Amino acid sequence: MALRDTIKEGKPMAKPEAFVIIPYKEPFNQIYSQIVKTVLDKCGFRVIRADEIASSSPFQADIEKTITTSDLIIADVTGYNLNVYYELGMAYGMKKML
């Protein structure tokens, strides 16, 4: 979905969502907040990382739902992080744009 598609017939549409799969530790927190999230915000995306999902549902169900509804998935596979591989595999299995 292009940014120009977020406005239709003069009415704002929901922002496209980008789900970022990245470890929750330094230096990845800084890369996420200062680079990835900043750039995606400027491109018109609503940016989500799993640890930012506020819900009373089980964590894995929230991640699966967010991957399902996201328009774009970005993953940092630097290093060895099983959670990143799991979430990326889930997105790949759903045939999401990676």
Topology readout:
Layout: E1 7-8, E2 11-12, E3 17-21, H1 28-42, E4 46-49, H2 59-69, E5 72-75, H3 82-93
Parallel strand pairs: 3-4, 3-5
Antiparallel strand pairs: 1-2
What does this structure look like?
The protein is of the alpha/beta class. The chain has a domain at 26-93. Helix content is 39%, strand content 17%. It has 3 helices and 5 strands. The chain has helices at residues 28-42, 59-69, 82-93, and strands at 7-8, 11-12, 17-21, 46-49, 72-75. Strand 3 (17-21), helix 1 and strand 4 (46-49) form a beta-alpha-beta unit. The longest helix has 15 residues, at 28-42. The protein is globular, with a radius of gyration of 14 Å. The mean pLDDT is 87.
Quick structural summary:
This protein has 98 residues and is an alpha/beta fold. It has helices at 28-42, 59-69, 82-93; strands spanning 7-8, 11-12, 17-21, 46-49, 72-75.
Task: Detail the poorly predicted runs.
Answer: none
Helix content estimate: 25-40%
Main pleated-sheet profile: 3 strands, parallel
Q: What is the residue-averaged pLDDT?
A: 87
Which geometry do the CA atoms define?
A: globular
Strand content: 15-25%
Please count the helical segments.
Answer: 3
Span between N and C termini?
A: 14 Å
Number of strands: 5
Biggest sheet: strand arrangement: 4-3-5
* Alpha carbon gyration radius: 14 Å
What is the ordering of alpha helices and beta strands? EEEHEHEH
**Class by SSE composition:** alpha/beta
